[in-house]
Amino acid sequence: xxxxxxxxLHLAPDAGLPAMxxxxxxxxxxxxxxxxxxxxxxxxxxxxxxxxxxxLMTWGKDCAAWSEAAEEAAEEAASYAEVxxxxxxxxxxxxxxxxxxxxxFSKHRAAHPAGPLKRTLILHIADTPxxxxxxxxxxxx
Length: 141
Fold this sequence. Notes:
Layout: E1 5-11, E2 26-32, H1 38-51, E3 53-60, H2 63-77, E4 90-93, H3 99-108, E5 119-125, H4 131-140
Parallel strand pairs: 1-5, 2-3, 2-5, 3-4
Helix pairs in contact: 1-2
C-alpha cells in the first residue's frame, strides 16, 4: 500500500465546492451515488485539479463523464501545454467494477509517474453521506 492518509468528503450533487486546506498532490476516488448536472461535474473537476488531485479513479453514476471532465480540467489547468511528471493528471473510469475492486486497485496498483501520493480522498457525491461504510470498505480492500 503506497498511500498513508485517507480522507472522506461528502458533497451533495450540485452543492458548493469547499476550499481545500491541503493542496499537496493526492489521489481521489470519486464515488458518485447520485447524478449531478453536467456543468457542476465540470466545475468539480476543475476544483479537483486546482486542489492538487493528480490521480482520479471514478466509480458510479456517469463515471465515464466524470473522467472526461477531469481530463479536460487538467488540460485546461495546464493551458493545454506539456506538463512535468509531477503535474501529470491521471484518470481511470471503473464503470464495470465493483466499488471494492476500485478501492483495492487504489491501494495496491494505482500509481503516479512522479512517485507515491501520500493522501487519498474518497469524494462521495450523494444526497446522503456514507462515511463509515465507505471508510470501512476502503480499509478492508
